[in-house]
């Protein structure tokens, strides 16, 4: 097998199907990705997929579409297919194969209910449902709510191993750059999910963003973590934007080798540790959602096992606790991979030098945006509204991305919102108190509580602190249009009374002493729930706040009623 080229061949102004064809021609035996042969265990080892095999699978799927479904009436992505299946390499194969034939494909999360999925599919006029041989139950439920033709797709091994002739694809980037490449969707935190279409031009902007030059004294995250000598173990699902970053854009644009966990079991850092002896080579970085990073930080044996084999970890899709981050960063490089479905990964910077050098490891929770990102910060609240674990001089700012001049790199967000001059991210940040230009992601603007007095408070710090109490499974702070804050806490079955006392001790001693008066939690407003269904989550694992609050509206209403009666002298 030939050596991996350094630097990796650029794919400027190139449609991704052509990029795959080029790499398969120039480097047919280079590894594109690796996955466990057995979808539920490691007992059969890992399979290596070369660029030749990946290209063959893309062509095979394109031919399968033409022969089984037929070509669309128009070939610019006007017609939409939908796929939900195991978290395997068929996702990137289906992206490129459907594009070659002239379709676009929506990849929704199967975690939504049938009604929400049917609505989402209707927004892109999806009429064709692709399903694996063992389809998820939700597929049939969606088909009952929205008439669709359902087709069973070939297995991954069939696509990789069955020789296929090249499928003709003669489009040019200049003529087709605005055609759809992938359809994903918003998280649906504050309502039903909405489709987000990535075009070929959007992908090209991601490519250019990966290769932005760094200012003197700094190194880009992409330059530090990605490249043809890097192996990435990703625990991200493909219906999440970061899943495609790991299996499509990072390999094709930077040469990074992508390694996946078993496709049909829920990933975790414990699964990642179990994978390490079976992966064909050393892993350089692990990418994970915040809950799995929290799991890693809470398990010293697991952290020792993974940090002895993997140099770096990055989390995607939310925040992690200070305790977790400090624990992990003492053992391995730790990075917050900021981004969004609309924008992709943000280009951010780290100081040059070793991880344990001054000003590097100690600032693991902070980032410095690349100047080309065009990120500006607008104050949205006073320092007192930040909440538990904040410092007195912290203020909250919303990140706003300003469109660059036409002669400069055009950020991906403006390939989605093509007429916009700026984009309000909805993300909240605090600046480091002494190191100017270093910022920490704090939470979402959507999560801000606005009390009946008009005063605002962000619940993130309180939720993270209460969430660390032993026996607490989930926590949500509410209070918008109310007289003050309340906590909805789900605890382990049969331990409600004991855990409630632990929570109240933390609330009294650590929460109420650090939050403003109007956000303090009164004892009646600690609503503790045992058992039952977990809080409903978005695809990235965050709580669907509005849905959960509505679910427990009666319990919360009674709690507020008790406070009002006490204040009115009725009890």
Automatic annotation (TrEMBL):
<keyword id="KW-0596">Phosphopantetheine</keyword>
<protein>
    <recommendedName>
        <fullName>AMP-dependent synthetase/ligase domain-containing protein</fullName>
    </recommendedName>
</protein>
<dbReference type="InterPro" id="IPR020845">
    <property type="entry name" value="AMP-binding_CS"/>
</dbReference>
<dbReference type="Pfam" id="PF00501">
    <property type="entry name" value="AMP-binding"/>
</dbReference>
<keyword id="KW-0597">Phosphoprotein</keyword>
<dbReference type="Pfam" id="PF23562">
    <property type="entry name" value="AMP-binding_C_3"/>
</dbReference>
<dbReference type="InterPro" id="IPR042099">
    <property type="entry name" value="ANL_N_sf"/>
</dbReference>
<dbReference type="InterPro" id="IPR000873">
    <property type="entry name" value="AMP-dep_synth/lig_dom"/>
</dbReference>
<dbReference type="InterPro" id="IPR051414">
    <property type="entry name" value="Adenylate-forming_Reductase"/>
</dbReference>
<feature type="domain" description="AMP-dependent synthetase/ligase">
    <location>
        <begin position="33"/>
        <end position="353"/>
    </location>
</feature>
